[in-house]
Write the structure tokens for this entry.
Amino acid sequence: MDRPKLSFFSIRRSKLSGDFIFEAVVGLFALGVIVLAFLLFRELLIESQLSWNTFGMGFLTGSTWDPVSEIFGALPFIFGTLVSSFLALLIAVPFSIGIAIYLSELAPEKLRTPLSFIIELLAAVPSVIIGLWGIFILAPFIRDYLAPPLSTYLGFLPLFQGPMYGLSMLTGGVILAIMIIPITSSVSREVIMTVPLQQREAALALGATGWETTRIAVLPYARSGIFGAVILGFGRAIGETMAVTMVIGNSPRISESLFSPSYTMASVIANEFVEATSKLYISSLIEIGFLLLLISVIINIAARILVWKMFKVEGGGRA
Amino acid sequence: MQNKITVENLNASFGAKQVLHDINIGIEKNGITAIIGPSGCGKSTFIRCLNRMHEVVSKARVSGKVLVDGKDIYDSDIDPVDIRRRIGMVFQKPNPFPTMSIYDNVAAGLKLNGINDKEILDKTVEESLKKAALWDEVKNDLNKSGVSLSGGQQQRLCIARALAVEPEVILFDEPCSALDPISTSKIEDLMTGLKEKYTLVIVTHNMQQAARVSDYTAFFLYGKMIEFGETNQIFKKPKEKSTEDYIVGRFG
Amino acid sequence: MKWNKRRLIDRIMSILTAACVVIAIIPLLSILYTVIINGISAIDLDFLTQLPKPVGEAGGGLGNAIQGTFIVVGIACLIGLPVGILSGIYLSEYGENRFGRMVSFVADVLTGTPSIVAGMFGYTFIVLYFGSFSAIAGGVALSVLMIPVVTRTTEESLKLVPASIKEASLALGIPRWKTTLHIVLSTARSGIITGALLAIARISGETAPLLFTSFGNMFWANGVDKPISTLPVQIYTYAVTPFPDWHAKAWAGALVLIILILILNISVRFATRRKYG
């Protein structure tokens, strides 16, 4: 056969450098990911310097947000973000765990995949569309059907006092809950599915029903992973911008009542960044953004460590 | 006998676990050498050392010499890629490239080494498939996916793929363990035909197979080579007690 | 008696958890229903091809916003896909070291970046630098959200390629980098494409990163260094006005956007199912 045979040496040289170049190129792009993260932090840190120098720690505790006299305190937004996100968790967690249990343990085999697909589809709906729906459907619904009974039966609590116009902390919390259910439930479900089969079989062999097996053998095992899923949802809620901005009312006041409008860290950036004219105003908004990034990152790391542990220890459980 | 490969003091390990101890063996040119032994005896690791595939796994280490035509393939100036082109390998489970057609599977080794001349490729594909006794079954379906073939055909496709790069030695790592008896006998016939041009080494679980196809047989146990000799002698008059035990089925 | 009680609890829990599923699906159905009902009545050919008109004037559309969305998402892909896919290749093929683990960790952390913060980055990094809102700034902001997702999905799909396929290639004397590029990558192709499509679907609907990067524009795009209109930002702008006319436009825009995204999502789902069936 008259196939051209390359000399031993030329083959060897070209290949060695080929491998080296390839690894160097993909390695450079991988380095790009780290550079990106570095730039992200550096940019926000530098641009928020002015605000940090002007207000110091007072930025976190100040409750006045007055662009006219240039006094900026982020407390109302921190309050709004934390309360709306906790409210979202309060609503979403029971549902998410219920969904995860049903879809991994109790539902008929045939329904599991299509149902979880539909639930995860919600995560694909853009935030701005959920916000649009929130303004025109959810907010009026809460104002007309959810708020009146709450104030009638629980009106003795400061939480449910005062007038309700639709756009409120409560609406914000509900919309966040709707938005984090897909992630919390799907991660919980994955975590539950890592529980080894032997665990379930042991319980089933004792004559336990499906629910008893879940309660005795599965849930205790999956607890820390489910907690991770919840924290992951919390991180999602804190960073969520558009839908909340559209329904929470955008008023920088700290109020005890869930019926009052509120304001979140993400919302104030979305609303005011373009209008912010003075350097200090912009810098203050960027400092809020930096805080938001910091909180999200910490929460994400914590959640991942919790969920990861499950997969590490029990990764091959079902295989 | 003229040795194609001479192995001297070969040791191999994964991390802290040593899997081969001080192996010395000569592999005859244009012959079939079988490596037998119970699972976990290191026989697969051994042949993976012959074309430097052992080191592909992380934490794998090799020491000692493997001389091919007198040249040590573990010398620092040797590129493993060249060694693997000269010493082909057929694996335990058929592993055709799943996204490629039958034609492309056979041509892959040439194409990816820079040979793109259509005429050469066509010719090589046809010849290789003929040598692998697969041509008549697939000549009209060369554009079909390689994984659409049956298990036995896939394994012959993998043999054709290995032949296409014109190796001097072909290593078979339990090539029939995933196949039915009819496919197995086809591949055994194929190997007997191939030894005219190539040097063959086969690892097998199946002692009848070793007895049927090989000229020489080495018996491995616990990472050591216990006995090596002509196949007839090993099966009829083994010198070592443990070889005899294994052959009559007392363990493994 | 006791056995019956336990059976009863089992049934109740099944029903309760199933109810959770049903209740969680209601918002999705309601969203789809209202978007379709409200959107369909405002959609026509003009809506898809015309420029917006001032409030009070009838007609007009979001043609420029649809065009702008494709441009900004396209820019994000130009940056995000190469970086994401090549980093993913590094992680799966060469990433078993400290640097690799660090990249992996950073990519994980970046997936939690709030989208509004990505927008801020686009602003401080590009808008301030060039002195103007621009399509590029929007693309950069979106690529920040895209890169970690594509990196991880690429890495995961590549890791699913059986070692036996890689070994087959190496044993043919094909160098490692060609093995990765021609054999491993093509075997993992469908997984990588799926990941990329899902990432594109996700960023196509993002609004927050674009508010102060690509900003908005009432006219057709006239350069990637100029402010540009996008569908999500336009929907937001219309939604928060008091004009019913514009609300109708917001719904119609939402319908267009949701159709684009759902098509991407569902087709991906079917493509992968057929592949790995």
Remarks:
- The interface with chain C takes residues 51, 53, 56, 58, 81-86, 88-89, 91, 93, 95-100, 108-109, 112-113, 158, 161-162, 165 of chain B (CB under 8 Å).
- Residues 118-131 of chain B form the longest helix (14 residues).
- The mean pLDDT of chain B is 91.
